[in-house]
Every structure is written in C-alpha cells, then in structure tokens.
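Q: Given only this backbone (155 positions), what sequence would you predict?
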C-alpha cells in the first residue's frame, strides 16, 4: 500500500494491435482526489515501457491519469488510497523501551513487596489451604444442636 512521503514507482506499457509500436509521449498527472494541485510529467519511451516515480505528500484518496494520443486521445484513470506514515523508527523503539521498563519496574515492585511481607514471619507467604464446607445438620435436630432439656416441674 502506498504511504505518504514514500515514492511510488509507475511503469506503463502501451501495446498496439496493428501498425507500428507506440513511441509516445505519455502524460501522467498525479493528484489528491478533488484537489486543484497536481504533479504532471511527460514521459518518453525507455526501452519497452515508460517509468517514473511520484511521491504523495498527504494521506487519502489519490488519482493517477495517463493521457496519450495514438489514433485518438486516450485517458486512463486509476484511483487508490495513500496511507499515513507509520511511527518513525526511533519513536517506535522508544515506546517499546518505555513499555519494557514499566513492566520491569512493576515486576520488581511486586517481588519486593512479597519479600518485605515475608521478612516479618521469616518465610514466604503461602496461600491458606481451603477450609472444608460445614456439613448440614441432620434433619430433626433443627437449628439448635443441643439436646432437649427436661420440662420444668410444677410445684
């Protein structure tokens, strides 16, 4: 995919069905879609094909128009998208280093907290074993597991 600020190489071949080969010239116009500014180049034949380079300066849709006259004027239009430039290489590496440094700092901080907490007991903290769930009371005893007492006597 073409990127902003990077050259785009264009190579064209114009063939003929009858008669002598087409010798040119070709006129290429390169511009952002709908923009009045444009880059125009007139190319002469270089071997079998016509070659040139354009460098888009903004991201977005761009048009390339190729014009030539053989038996009559012919115009070919191509539309393509230009992507914005990625982060500069130095900035990308800087973000990676900041991320790695932050991860290292947080990891060391976590280890030091564990060592400090275990310093008071002399051993590393371990997870407490799970407590087994209490068994439900057998039916008939109700909520109070104490045996029934003797009824009060009347005097």
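A: Predicted residues:
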């Amino acid at each position: 995919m073409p990127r902003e600020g990077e050259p785009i190489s264009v190579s064209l071949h114009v063939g003929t069905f009858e008669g002598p080969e087409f010798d040119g010239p070709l006129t290429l116009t390169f511009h952002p879609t709908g923009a009045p500014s444009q880059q125009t180049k007139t190319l002469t034949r270089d071997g079998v094909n016509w070659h040139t380079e354009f460098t888009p300066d903004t991201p977005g849709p761009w048009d390339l128009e190729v014009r030539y006259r053989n038996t009559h004027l012919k115009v070919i239009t191509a539309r393509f998208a230009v992507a914005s430039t990625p982060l500069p290489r130095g900035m990308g590496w800087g973000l990676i280093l900041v991320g790695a440094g932050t991860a290292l700092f947080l990891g060391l901080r976590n280890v030091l907290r564990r060592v400090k907490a275990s310093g008071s007991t002399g051993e590393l903290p371990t997870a407490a074993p799970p407590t087994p769930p209490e068994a439900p009371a057998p039916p008939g005893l109700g909520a109070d597991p104490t045996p029934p007492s003797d009824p009060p006597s009347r005097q």
